Amino acid sequence: MRKYLPQYLAISPFFLLFGIFGLFPMVFLLYLAFHYWDGVGEMKFVGLDQFAFLVTDDTFWLSLSNTLQIWVLSTAPTLFLGLVIAFVLHSSVRFTTFYRIAYFVPSVTSLVAVAIVFGSIFSSNFGLLNAVLDWIGAAKVPWLTSELGIKVSISALIVWQWTGYNAIIYLAGLQAIPSEVFDAATVDGASRWQILWRIVIPMMRPVILFTVIASTIGGLQTFTEAQILVGEEGGPGQAGMTMVLYLYQQAFKHNDFGYGAAIGVGLFLVVLLFSVINWRLVQRGERP
Amino acid sequence: MRRHLVLGFGVVLSLFPFYWMVVMATNSTEEILKFPPAVTPGGELMANVSKVFTEIDFFESMLNTVLAATGATVLVLLFDSLAAFTFAKFHFPGRTVLFVLLLATMMIPPQLSAIPQFVVMAQFGWVGSLKALIIPATVNAFGIFWMRQYIAGAVHDELLEAARLDGCGFLRQYWHVGLPVVRPALGFLGIYTFISVWNDYLWPLVVLVDPDRLTLQVALGQLNRTHDTDYSMVMAGTVLAVIPLLIVFLIGARNFIADLAKGAVRG
């Protein structure tokens, strides 16, 4: 063992730091969820009370439903548009570097900044979008003051920020497909849509799965978009109350750390469920 | 031609929010709220910026953000390259198990541990301190995984063997053979880490309890909350918070995008 000491030392920072800042917090989260704690006084053991409250808490289920709705509303257009852009980019020869950077820039821009800008575009009273609608004679839309409007606005932000990122990844996947495949299909008279649906998408399955998994992990943790656009209470009808926003609100605004932790455990189970589903999808793809 | 029309339309959508941000930051709030609103950049930027400076301690927040992002980036590059080099090029008992364990840690969603991690920070006395941003950010399984893939292909075993025969110990092999070869990978991981820490919001929002010691994102969120009717001023702050990062990104954009895409397709 001694002769491997340098190797073990070299990898030890990760495991040491993960133990302190990754593993221990997860165990402690579970411990905390069995207690009542306001963050200052004594922790009080309450058994399963927090969970009993959780399963009957309408706001918790609403936050789960909101999170999933926003996830679907944002992920489907993001991945579809990303694929279309990648497809067009792939057949375009000029300015590709410019296009790539222009499409990628939203994904590295601060979410807080982006959410503030989108807030001013979607604002129901003073927003640019409603000013334009008004100008062309259409009715104003209550973007940030109605339940559907809030979800659409948050989703629009996510679509805007991540479409280009996914397009770049799909483009790399497309470039890994030998060009003879495209040539053969074109010679056989396949249309561009047929090539996209019959050849490209099946061949890019692993890359698409990667983007679906990444979008799931990101989507289930939606927080900043909602907090900046509609605030800590989730806006009218709490339509913007996501799971992480609810966790944040309970723990850090209402000082109810025990219940916040219980929400965290609930969120963990949801993430676990989706990980298993994703994993099954990957497994099925690997079978011949 | 039709292709470029489609792509061009996409670019307009992609870049429009940046343009709109600049329009708002360079006009007065009255100009934006009147009907029809101003749609071209105006000359009020300096006035708006000086209002930002009186509302929030912008330079303090900027300094904190730069310190946190730089500190985390340096540590991540050091720890991750060292660990990745070891996993990629050395055999030691438990290597596979430890690497699988490392990959498994990526499954844990980081937002989830905000509550317990806050408690850990309280125990350490790090609440409100930049250490709370830097040290946990160095736990980066993705970086080790990504570097390991790179090193496995880029660093040749013969080179390491030659170095060993010349009497190089483990650290000198890492420093003289490994590091020079992986420099491009360090560039990617460095920019990636810097951007992540710079943009992070929930964790600094939670842990930076001292209102005089915030990061840019938290200060910006606060500015937006307390002055949500003064669009121009908030946008001026937004422009200031976004531009330094865009510069960092644009310097390395070409390689960065290529590296990220390659990693996603391979992984």
Automatic annotation (TrEMBL), chain A:
Transmembrane segments: 12-34, 68-89, 101-122, 152-174, 195-217, 257-279
Gene3D superfamilies for this protein: MetI-like
Keyword entries, A-Z: Cell membrane, Membrane, Transmembrane, Transmembrane helix, Transport
Bilayer topology term: Multi-pass membrane protein
Alphabetized PROSITE patterns for the sequence: ABC_TM1
UniProt-listed Pfam families: BPD_transp_1 (PF00528)
Example GO biological process: transmembrane transport
InterPro entries the UniProt entry points to: ABC_transporter_permease (IPR051393), MetI-like (IPR000515), MetI-like_sf (IPR035906)
The UniProt record lists the keyword Phosphoprotein: no
GO CC terms in record: plasma membrane
Compartment(s) where it occurs, according to its Swiss-Prot or TrEMBL record: Cell membrane
Domain ABC transmembrane type-1: 64-278
Family listed: Belongs to the binding-protein-dependent transport system permease family.
Descriptive protein name: Sugar ABC transporter permease
Source organism of this protein record: Lentzea tibetensis
UniProtKB/TrEMBL annotation, chain B:
The UniProt record lists the keyword Transmembrane: yes
Topological category with respect to the lipid bilayer: Multi-pass membrane protein
Xref: PROSITE patterns: ABC_TM1
Membrane-spanning parts: 66-85, 97-118, 124-146, 174-195, 231-253
The keyword Cell membrane is annotated on this UniProt entry: yes
CDD domains recorded: TM_PBP2
GO cellular component: plasma membrane
Residue span(s) of domain ABC transmembrane type-1: 62-252
Gene Ontology BP term (one): transmembrane transport
Keywords: Cell membrane, Membrane, Transmembrane, Transmembrane helix, Transport
Protein name as annotated: Carbohydrate ABC transporter permease
Species of origin: Lentzea tibetensis
